[in-house]
Design a protein that fits this description.
This protein has 3 domains: 289 residues, TIM Barrel (Alpha-Beta Barrel), CATH 3.20.20; 75 residues, no CATH class; 105 residues, Jelly Rolls, CATH 2.60.120. Helices cover 28% and strands 19% of the residues. The strands form 3 sheets. Strands 1-2-3-4-5-6-7-8 form an 8-stranded parallel beta barrel, surrounded by 4 helices. The longest helix is centred in the N-terminal third of the chain and has 21 residues. It is elongated and about 95 Å long.
Length: 591
C-alpha cells in the first residue's frame, strides 16, 4: 500500500467512525429515525458482494440492491434468484453489519412500464427476492418512456398496471415505491387513483428541483404516509457546500414536522478526475463544514452531508426544459463509438472494463469492430481468433455485459477497415458505385457511334442508362485562364492540369485568382485534395469584371462525408456567374 492510499483509507476509516458516532447517537438501528443507504449500482458494485464491505467502509447503514438489467429478457438479469448466491449476500451483509435497505428495479429507467410485455412477472420476481432477503421496499422508476408529463395518454394503462402490482405487493406484505415526473399534487392524485397503500412515492429531491418546485412544499403535499423512501440527490457535480437549491435545515425541519422516518438512499456525484473512486467521493463529502445543530439533533448531521450526493442516471432528471434535457440527455441522444477488438487480443475482464468505462463516460452504444487476425508476436496471451468458439463466447459475454450496463451494441459489417467481403465474393456481388462518361455531339443531327465506356474494376461493368440533354450555352468551350496567387513567387498554374497530383499549400490567408481573356460563365468548381481537408471545401468565391473590384458570389459548403472518402474530388455548383476574374479566398479565421 502506497502512502497516498494509506492516507485516504485512514481518513476514510476516521470519518466512517465519526459517521456512526454522530448519526446513531444513543440509538439502536431499529430506533434510528433516519438511516443512510447507498445504491449498489452507483458505487459500481451492482449485485456484487463487495458492495457490503464498501458500504461499511464509507460509513452507511445499508445498501439498495439492484435487480439488474432488463434488455430484451423475460425478466431481470439477477443473480439473487439463485439460493446459494442469495445466501452469500445475506451472510456478507451480517458479516459487514450492513442492512439491505431496499431492492431496485432500475431496469425500468430505460424500459416502458406501460408497454413492456411481462411486467407482472418482472415485478413478481422482484417481490420474491424482497421476501427472500426480508426487505420491505422496492424502487420502481417509471423512467423516460413512462414520463406522465410528456406522455399523459399512458396514464390509464399505467394506473391499471400499478393496480395489478398493488395486488401482488399486498399479498406479499411489501411496498413498491414509484418515481414519477409528476409534481406532488399530480402524484397524490395518481396514488389515489391506484388506491393501495402498497404503492407509495419513492421521493427524489432532484425531480422536484429540476421541475422548479419548492422541495419542502412537495414533501408536505405528499405527506408522511405516502413516502416510503427518499432518494437524496441533486445535480451531478455540485457539492453540498456549493448547493444553493437545497436549504438543508429546512428539509430536516420539514421531515421532522411530518413525523417521517425511514431510509435516505444516497446517489453520488463524481470527481471528473477520478470518477471510479467512490471512497474518495464520500471522503470529500465528509470534509464539508458541519451545519450547526444542537446535541439532540446530532443524529441528522450526516444526513445533511449525504444530501450533496446526486444521481448520474439521465432518466432521473425528468426533463422539463432545454437545460435539463442537455444535462440529462435521453438514451437516444447519447453518442456511439467504434469498439475495436485488435488482432485477437480480447478477454472477459477487458470487455467488462471497456463497457463499464463507456457507461461512466455516458456512451450510449458501440459498434463492435474486430481488427485482423493474431499478431506476430501476439499482443497478449491467450489469443482469441475471430469466429473461433472462444471468440463467440467473448461475443456472448460482451452482449450480456452491455445489456447489464444499458449500453447498446451493433456489429460492424466487416473485419476492421476493410469492406464487407471475401474471396467468395465475385465482382458482380461486390459493393459497387455509379460511374459515367460524357460525350458531346453536335445538335440537329443523328448520332451513330459507340459511347466511351466508364472505368471498370476487375472488368465488371453494367449499363444503367443513357441520358441525352441539350448542353448549357458555352459547354465544351475550352477557355484556359491564367492562374495567379497572393503568395509572392508561387507558380500555381499546375492547378489547371487534369492529372495534377500537387497540392497548393499556404500557412497564411490569401487567394487564388483565375483570369480570362474574355468574360467566362462559371457554373461549377471542382476541388480535389490528396487527403482530409475540410477547409478546402469552404472557400469563398468572388468575381470581378476589372480585376480590381470583387464581389462575393458564395462560400462553398463542405459535403457530409466520412474519413474514408475525404480525399475524393468534390464538384460544387454555384449560381452561374459571368466575369473575367474569379478568386478563391482562404484564411485562418474558419472560412
Amino acid at each position: 500500500m502506497d502512502r497516498r492510499r494509506f492516507i485516504i483509507n485512514s481518513t476514510l476509516a476516521a470519518t466512517a467512525t465519526l459517521f456512526h458516532q454522530h448519526f446513531a447517537w444513543g440509538a439502536t438501528p431499529a430506533a434510528q429515525r433516519y438511516r443512510i443507504a447507498v445504491c449498489d449500482w452507483m458505487i459500481l458494485k451492482r449485485q456484487k458482494l463487495g458492495a457490503f464491505k464498501l458500504t461499511r467502509e464509507i460509513g452507511a447503514d445499508g445498501v439498495e440492491l439492484d435487480m439488474g438489467g432488463l434488455g430484451n429478457r423475460e425478466t431481470f438479469d439477477s443473480k439473487l434468484g439463485d439460493p446459494a448466491i442469495r445466501q452469500q449476500f445475506l451472510d456478507e451483509a451480517r458479516k459487514q453489519q450492513v442492512q439491505i435497505s431496499s431492492v431496485a428495479m432500475s431496469g425500468f429507467y430505460a424500459q416502458s412500464f406501460a408497454e413492456r410485455e411481462g411486467v407482472d412477472r418482472m415485478v413478481q420476481d422482484c417481490i420474491n427476492t424482497m421476501q427472500q432477503l426480508q426487505v420491505k421496499v422496492a424502487f420502481l422508476p417509471l423512467g423516460i418512456q413512462g414520463d406522465l408529463v410528456k406522455f399523459p395518454h399512458l396514464r390509464p394503462v399505467i394506473v391499471e398496471r400499478l393496480k395489478a402490482v398493488a395486488v401482488q405487493a399486498e399479498k406479499a406484505g411489501v411496498i413498491i415505491g414509484i418515481e414519477t415526473a409528476l409534481d406532488a399534487t399530480g402524484e397524490v392524485k395518481l396514488l389515489d387513483d391506484i388506491g393501495s397503500s402498497a404503492i407509495q412515492s419513492y421521493f427524489n429531491f432532484a425531480n422536484a428541483l429540476e421541475g422548479g418546485r419548492d422541495l419542502q412544499q412537495e414533501l408536505r403535499i405528499l405527506g408522511r404516509d405516502r413516502i416510503c423512501q427518499i432518494h437524496c440527490t441533486d445535480k451531478d457535480g455540485v457539492w453540498l457546500k456549493d448547493n444553493t437549491r437545497i436549504h438543508l435545515p429546512k428539509v430536516k425541519r420539514t421531515l421532522d414536522k411530518m413525523g417521517w422516518r425511514g431510509w435516505l438512499v444516497i446517489e453520488r456525484s463524481r470527481d471528473a478526475k477520478d470518477p471510479r473512486n467512490c471512497k474518495m467521493e464520500l471522503r470529500r463529502q465528509y470534509r464539508l463544514p458541519e451545519i450547526s445543530f444542537s446535541k439532540g439533533m446530532m443524529k441528522a448531521i450526516i444526513f445533511f452531508f449525504f444530501l450533496g450526493w446526486m444521481s448520474v442516471l439521465p432518466a432521473v432528471a425528468q426533463d422539463r426544459g432545454l437545460e435539463a434535457a442537455f444535462r440529462h440527455p435521453p438514451a437516444a441522444a447519447k453518442p456511439w463509438v467504434f469498439w475495436y477488438w485488435m488482432q485477437a487480443s480480447v478477454s472477459r475482464a477487458g470487455i467488462t472494463a471497456d463497457l463499464e468505462a463507456m457507461r461512466e463516460a455516458g456512451i450510449g452504444g458501440a459498434y463492435l469492430m474486430p481488427i485482423k487476425g493474431v499478431a506476430n508476436p501476439p499482443l497478449m496471451e491467450p489469443t482469441v481468433a475471430q469466429l473461433s468458439p472462444q471468440w463467440w463466447e467473448m461475443l456472448r459475454h460482451a452482449m450480456q455485459e452491455a445489456d447489464r450496463l444499458g449500453i447498446q451494441l451493433a456489429m460492424h459489417a466487416s473485419d476492421g477497415f476493410a469492406l464487407a467481403g471475401g474471396p467468395w465474393i465475385t465482382p458482380e456481388l461486390s459493393m459497387q458505385k455509379v460511374v459515367y462518361t460524357t460525350t458531346q455531339v453536335p445538335g440537329s443531327r443523328q448520332f451513330n457511334d459507340t459511347l466511351a465506356r466508364p472505368a471498370a474494376y476487375q472488368g465488371y461493368y453494367r449499363d444503367i442508362a443513357v441520358m441525352a440533354f441539350p448542353s448549357p450555352e458555352g459547354e465544351g468551350v475550352m477557355a484556359k485562364p491564367r492562374v495567379s496567387t497572393s503568395l509572392p513567387g508561387v507558380d500555381a498554374s499546375f492547378l489547371l492540369n487534369d492529372d495534377n497530383r500537387k497540392n497548393f499549400r499556404s500557412d497564411a490567408g490569401g487567394w487564388i485568382q483565375f483570369s480570362y481573356e474574355q468574360p467566362f460563365t462559371c457554373r461549377t468548381i471542382q476541388i480535389r485534395t490528396n487527403g482530409p481537408n475540410y477547409q478546402a471545401q469552404r472557400l469563398i468565391v468572388s468575381a470581378s469584371d476589372d480585376g480590381k473590384v470583387f464581389r462575393t458570389i458564395t462560400r462553398l459548403e463542405a459535403p457530409r462525408h466520412g474519413w474514408q472518402d475525404s480525399d475524393a474530388g468534390v464538384t460544387h455548383a454555384i449560381t452561374p456567374t459571368t466575369a473575367r476574374y474569379f478568386r478563391l479566398v482562404y484564411g485562418h479565421h474558419g472560412i
